[in-house]
Write the structure tokens for this entry.
Amino acid sequence: MKIDRRSFLSFIVGGAAGTALTPLPWKITDDLSIWSQNWPWTPVPPNGEVTFVNSVCRLCPGGCGITVRKVDARAVKIEGMDGYPVNDGGICPLGLSGLQLLYGPTRIPYPMKRKGNRGDGKWEKISWEKAVSEVVTKLGEIRKNNRPHGLACISESDRGTVAGLMARFMSAFGSQNFIRQPSMEDSYELALYLMHGIRAEAGFDIENAAFVLSFGSGVIEGWGSPVRMFRANSKLIKTGGKVVQIEARLSKSAAKSDKWIPINPGTETALALAMAHVIIKEGLYNKDFIENHAFGFEDWTDGQGNKQQGFKSLVTATYAPENVAEATGVEKAVIVSLARHFARASKPLAICGRGQGRTSSAIGEFLAVQALNALVGNINQEGGFHAISDNDYIDWPEIETDQIASNGLQNGRLDEAGSENYASVRYLPHRFFENIIAETGYPIQVLFAAGANPLYSLPDTKAVKAALDKVPFIVSFSSFMDETAQYSDIILPDHTYLERYEDVPTPIGLQKPIIGLTRPVVSPQLDTKHLGDVILGIAKGLGGSMAQAFPWKSYEACLEKTLGRKLDTLLDKGYWSPAVFSVPEWIKAFETASGKFEFVVSDQDGNGDRKTKPIADWYTGVESQGDPVTYPLLLIPYDSMRLVNGFVGDPPFVIKTVEDTVLKGKDVFIEINPKTAKQLGLSEGKYARLTTPKGNAKVRVHLFEGIKEGIIALPRGLGHTAYDSYIADKGVNYNELIGAVYDPVSGLDAAWGIRAKLGKA
Amino acid sequence: MSASEEQNSPEAEAPDEEEMDVETSEPIEPLKPEEGKNGAGATIFLFFILGFAASLIVGWVVFPKLLYSKKIQPINFNHALHVAEAAEGCESCHYFREDGSFSGVPTISHCIECHENVNGEDPEEKKFVREYVEAGKEVPWLIYAKQPASVFFSHAAHVITAKMECVACHGPIGESTETRIYEENRLTGYSRDIWGKNISGIKQHSWERMKMDDCADCHMQKATSEKESGVQQSLTRQLREMVSVAFPNVMEVKKGSSVQTEKDACFVCHK
């Protein structure tokens, strides 16, 4: 018997025939198909007991109620909480993606101490005891040297118990340098203080308004409380309301509005005053409000017997529509018709704060817009502007400062807020960093960064970095490895919002006061600690009057004590609101020297006497930085719901939604009018070099007819150097290209753009 | 005959196999042509049979042995004992949650209700308390009935609404006194129970196999008993449904078994 090729083939054929009569081929096919469904990268929902936890989102100032679906101990989905007064079941892309931040790789897993040079990214893991004791030792040293004012803290917010504890810590320690990240809140807060005489939050009853006049506010691009604004805008449209958007660029909000008025950026104040001119000239204003509840409309005489100009004569003399038509780029007829429509609308409302409102603005612009609200008498009216006094539920015992602290507090604030020049303004972060660089005032020796990322989100990041270089010890409390955390000396990571308790005061723009409760959805995933507990720990470590100022065992004990019975409602319902609430009537609404709404802006000194600058000084805007010859173009920023712009960057889900006319690969696109591009010899998709007085960057060109000639626009929220590969090194950080422009009357940063040039790359 | 000879021979250029055998082998092999033919034929047939037999052995005996690995449960669990002790029988541990979802295999927090301390003499219980209860660790039970994630199965629809018995799908597991060997499919990671112990897929009891056809069998029976007449064959019914889903305008959609879509298409069970 020979075994040859044919025998072998025969064996194979026999084998094939036999195999066909076994279950092997069918079973293997079936198993392979199941195997192919179980590749490790295929997402599979976990199996287990489903529960829901109600909480409040903390990823932006919007304060939406959320319901998190859990399977056993794992959070699997974040949804909007039904019935929550802010968002009633709605949620935004960032809120939805919160779990990627909770479980993602950008979190700081444990306390860390810097090894090597600052920013090198070399860290040493340390224990919590060691981390706290390092900070206590550093703070002890500066107190021993009688320099407690050398401690500063920059925080995302100044409301609620956590920020409250931080501010209290600063006071008890002996430093006034508690600083809040800039936002439109700065400008609104100041405008309300000057005009209404109260420290209050701006509330907008957009749901019930009939005519919304938006001076560049991105109503559907994340302005105010984003989800609420989307819904309010929809309700307004459904009930026949009108929205007019005044903005240099055809933003999404402008595109969805009833009328878009392209204006030269930075001239909003002039336009608002020209509208006021028409309203006054034609007698369209609310006479009851102006005659009985307003001061400074007519000319008046001050305490020294000097004649002072009133609002009416200011706008009638200077701001005739034909006078501002050229500067604003809005025709006279358009201004007149807009003013008439606004004043004749049943429930008109004027709003401001550019884009998402994440920057402060010139106070003149806010005063002028608020003056429009006053002229139509919509203050504290349905569908109008509401001034919401912060519900003062935090009632902690007075701090008994020791001698060192009292001495430290005498030194005042390094940013000069509240000083003679900037009496009513509360925080001036830009001036704080500039004074550090210029070595004006006194040196800052320790800086706390709590929920703030100044190295990314303040204008002129190079200058901020230079300032940080002069601070010998930076403590970050961030949950994520952001730019500032990367550049710190020690990190004491906080729980994320899905792992901690925290009260959430009335969100920005809401027209009724509420308190929300953020509560742990999952147990802490990493070796992190609640910021409140860390502050208490540091205070206890310092001992003496510091320890006495914080009589609570833990943050939770402090929260329980502070909220009292409200906590039961919060735990049960998810939010607390006053049983009866109505905004005060006009007669009781204003706490100014005149007891009325004041067009004339005046700071009061200790004796109640008015110290005022001429009215014309207040109602002005600011110019952009850079000379028009070298820099023939104007660069303005724009915001988008798809680009996160706060203390966190875009999570992976959100960055995936960014259009490829905004970001492609690692390149960001600059929006430019086709005519301007043609003059510069640039075409769609071409690389270009963008230069401003503050810096330069390589960008790509996107032709867009919805932007005025001579103006170019760059998105905010890109150009991170920190976080993960989904967001890091993509695009350009707008803040690297601009600098602060001081509003001479308020001291706030009023930059709305910067001069720029664009050349072929 | 060697391959090189065959190639060198000028007649061997693309010859018919049989012819080549006869003509070229003659001078080298002095056998009679008939004998050579018969001998070669027998050899070939023998190898065919060998291949046939080997593959049958591989397919029916070796393959199942290779495909499944044998695993032992972390704890030898006595169902019969627990059913006798627990107040509510099966439902004491395998219950419906408030939201209607089924709890499946109990978690350690449930076991602790009775087993916070060692209750008896059984070394398995001691092991359980020491290694899992005291350590606060879940028992990594190997689940015989586990289906792939793409299968949507609602216990509530079957047990509460259709009032089916657990035994119908799970067999008399409640009477077992010890855990069986868990045979894990090396390719899929699922239990052998899903395909069935019998590799050919033949089953005697309803619980011996849990593939899609087994779902279909029961659903067909149900459909047959519910509709008085004119029950379509499963194939034509499935085709009709596919057409009605893909081209809703072409064919009238009849009410199917899905509450959501009122159709009987794939996505009722496959998510």
Summary: Strands of chain B lie at 68-71, 182-185. Residues 238-271 of chain B form one domain. The first helix of chain B runs from residue 3 to 8.
